[in-house]
Design brief:
The chain is mostly helical. The chain has five helices and no strands. Pfam families: DinB_2.
Amino acid sequence: MNYQHKLITKELTKLLLGGSAHVSLKDALDNLKPELRGIRPENMPYSIWQLVEHIRIAQWDMLQFSKDAEHKSPKWPDEYWPKENAPEDDDAWKGSLKQINSDLDEFIELLEHSDICQEIPHGEGQTILREALQLADHNGYHIAEIVALRRMLKDWK
């Protein structure tokens, strides 16, 4: 891996993990009361659970697309958003967060061992670099919504 690749990968990793100018998912969910996971504030189209699940599904899809020519993306938008406001139980909540973290780790591993500027063979011009930027942007956007929901629920710092 050359110096430029190392530098870009390091910066992308920081962006993907949150921090600096962005709240991480871990920080956005820190000390969230379990009973607030499924509340949809008035005039809001989703709950914190729905945002977490959406992050999980979309991130999984971007990871799988980046590495697997046979991958079929979920149907947009129906299969990217859970219909239930709240997780079935605490195990569902923990499982979603565990997959988000493991998929993110796997994507970062892919970043470190790929030619990030080479087009993905089964794509339409996408590169691992583009997928990393899209993933960071997508997660950052929805993590900010989680913070906004927590503020509406009077459960933020």
